[in-house]
Amino acid sequence: MAQAADSAPAFDFPSIDGGKYNTADWRGKPVLVVNTASMCGYTPQYTDLQALSDHYGDKAVVLAVPSDDFNQELADDAAVKEFCELNYNITLPMTTIEHVAKGAVHPFYAWVKEQSGFVPGWNFNKVLIGPDGQIVKSWGSNAQPLGAIKDQIDALLAAQG
Fold it and tell me: 114, exposed or middle or buried, with CB in 10 Å at 0-12, 13-18, 19+?
């Protein structure tokens, strides 16, 4: 059963730049959460994730969550930040390295599993949160950010009027 928007859970993510992100601050916007890795065959998706972020501006959020759960992330947050900035000009919000599928899983990913059964099976899995803070849809690594995912975000924005 879906929760009402005012009872949707909020999650804190530590920012790779210091400080934190709280998903409640993004209520009213679609939020695409993507578990990322720097040394993966899917890493070039950063280009399209940044393009999505640029395209939507303040109408939607693309949040990158680096993870080493599949042993393809760099050693520390500073290395990840530098890699993403130098290779992909990343300016979209990015968290510190987090567990998404193994070990002490971040509370957001534990909630996603509880609500939908979805657990990232690899890097660059995507979870779309609607403007009400609830899960809309999830995709695996092969889903391209500028394809069906963009279409789903466009539909959410169109429904808002």
Answer: exposed
